[in-house]
Specification:
Elements: H1 11-20, H2 25-35, H3 44-60, E1 64-65, E2 80-81, H4 87-99, H5 121-126, H6 132-152, H7 157-163, H8 173-188, H9 214-229
Parallel strand pairs: 1-2
Helix pairs in contact: 3-4, 4-6, 6-7, 6-8
Length: 250
């Protein structure tokens, strides 16, 4: 939801203000890729085509897809993607799949709490693993990566850029710094090339302890302690070796 709606006639000015605050040519060039797309959501036949393209991309990443039209009560149930939704939601979930730690890639809604199409919100919240701060940081990276996938697929990426409030505070140092920082993290992590193209890279590093909610840390610590305290299983006794009996010759 857009916090501060921007009248269509003021959008070019807002984009110029935002662009002027970006410090380097690479970052400005990547913004230009998004700005060159449509600020309007696809409708009718185009919307369905975009949805099917997004589902194809999800399958290429190895994500399962729930039976249509509504095969799951969760945006991501740990194995399957909720398919009956818009393309921009699907590519956002693909970005979640890329950026989640290996342990969370198979957790309901990637261990971040309820996703946009999740109806069983209680189940998603029970599976939440990250602190609010760590979750917000990852969500920002997911947002921008998903938008860049929309650029790559020739979808209306600028519409998502607006909906996800990247132009909020356009012209301020804070807005430009936030965009630049998130984009830098994606590039350094190997998720986006310097040309602004999203890659097929999947995160491999685990979540760090400070990023995890206290309850999750406690469970992990308990498992580690139990593993350390478990008595070693004594080795089985070696099988006795018998020499063959010698036969006497009568």
């Amino acid at each position: 939801m857009i916090l501060t709606p921007i009248p269509p006639e003021r959008l070019p000015e807002k984009l110029r203000q935002f662009r002027a605050g970006l410090a380097d040519a690479v970052t400005r060039g990547i913004l230009d890729l998004m700005a060159a797309t449509s600020p309007h959501r696809a409708v009718a036949v185009a919307a369905e085509l975009h949805r099917r393209q997004a589902l194809t991309l999800a399958r290429e990443f190895g994500m399962g897809v729930a039976a249509e039209p509504c095969g799951s009560w969760l945006s991501w149930d740990g194995e399957r993607l909720h398919a009956d939704t818009e393309a921009f939601v699907l590519v956002h979930e693909i970005a979640h799949f890329q950026l989640a730690s290996p342990a969370r890639r198979r957790v309901i809604d990637f261990g971040l709490g309820a996703g946009p199409d999740t109806l069983d919100r209680a189940a998603a919240e029970r599976g939440a693993m990250l602190t609010e701060l760590a979750g917000d940081r990852e969500e920002a990276m997911v947002s921008l990566l998903g938008i860049l996938w929309e650029v790559r697929l020739s979808h209306p990426a600028l519409a998502s850029f607006l909906d996800q409030n990247w132009l909020e505070g356009a012209g301020s140092e804070r807005a430009a710094a936030h965009f630049s920082t998130v984009l830098r993290r994606l590039r350094e992590g190997g998720f986006v090339s310097d040309a602004g193209r999203p890659t097929r890279h999947l995160r491999q590093d685990p979540d760090e302890a400070p990023e995890l909610r206290a309850a999750v840390r406690d469970v992990a610590a308990g498992r580690e302690t139990a593993s350390q305290e478990r008595p070693a299983i004594p080795p089985l006794p070696r099988t006795r070796q018998f020499a063959p009996e010698s036969s006497s010759v009568g």
